[in-house]
Each structure stands twice: as C-alpha cells, then as structure tokens.
Amino acid sequence: MGTTRVTVRCCDCSLTTTHDTLRDARLAVDDHESAAGHDVAWTIESLDAGVSKAGADAGVCGRPECANDDSPLVNPAPPEREP
C-alpha cells in the first residue's frame, strides 16, 4: 500500500467522501454526525506504508509476540540527559 485512502459514507443520506488522511476522515465523520445527527461509517481502504509499518512494529493486535523488538517505535530509548 502506497497511500492512505479512507471513504466516509453516511447511512442516512447520500454523503460519500474520500480522504487522504485519517485525520481528515475523522473530522468529516465528526462534522457530519454533529451537523446532521446522522450515523456515519468510515472504511479504511489503504494506509501509507509508514503507518502500516508502525502499526506492525508496535504489535497493535495486542499480543506481545506480535511486536518487533528491533523497531525504534517499540520502547524507544529515553533521550540522554546532560550531566
């Protein structure tokens, strides 16, 4: 997967939009639910490779054996303090 693509669809009207970031999609969902009071669903069709890698490295499935212990994203070393 090369880019992020999220589709937002309203279950109560004809609203259908696509977004290149999760943030923009989440804002669209929140805005439409707040303004129209409708039930909105979103589908993550693809994620940028970096987002997928970060999720995989962090073991987002919740099982410790899924985490990549060699990744700097998992328990990164704290910054060195100056004496």
Describe this structure in words.
With 83 residues, the chain is of the alpha+beta class. The chain has one domain. It has 2 helices and 3 strands; from the N terminus they run E-E-H-E-H. It has helices at 22-36, 49-58; strands at residues 5-10, 16-19, 40-46. It has a 3-stranded antiparallel β-sheet, covered by helices on one side. The longest helix has 15 residues, at 22-36. The chain is elongated and about 60 Å long. The model has no long low-confidence stretch (mean pLDDT 81).
Please provide a brief summary of the model:
By secondary structure, the chain is α+β, with helices and mostly antiparallel strands. Helices cover 30% and strands 20% of the residues.
> Class by helix and strand content?
alpha+beta
Unreliable stretches:
none
Which sequence of SSEs, written as H and E, runs from N to C? EEHEH
Principal-axis shape equals elongated
Q: Give the spatial strand order of the biggest sheet.
A: 2-1-3
Question: How many strand units?
Answer: 3
Q: Largest sheet at a glance?
A: 3 strands, antiparallel
The overall average pLDDT, rounded, is 81
